[in-house]
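Fig. S4 source data, part A: sequence.
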Amino acid sequence: MIELRETMAELLSEALGLSSNYVSHVECMKSESLACLYYPVCPEPELTFSTSAHSDTTFLTLLLQDSIGGLQINHQNQWADIISNDKFKSVEHRVLAQPVGPRILVACFYCPSSRSGSKPFGPIEELIFDRRANSI
């Protein structure tokens, strides 16, 4: 998880056009936790959801989902069976109950370090500057 965190921090930084160590330097994903989730077969999935709609409060959540699926995101007020979205935005998502399974999911959550946990993270100045420059 630590090696993956470092790789993801570097890739996210570079994808945003920042130095490769930017995300690591601000320590916004310095702490990690792992959750292994088990969803049993649901005989009447149309009557329930496994989890209600929510957005994660972590900096980054990585999911390993089995082939059964069930994770949906809310995109333009419609639920879609995809696991990616626009540029690093925490989207509302839910997990559907399935008539097949059981379903297994592993979630890796990355959060700020305990030292920076109370420190607010604001907009990245380099990205605000780039946006203004591109809109002129």
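Fig. S4 source data, part B ends here. The chain is about 20% helix and 30% strand.
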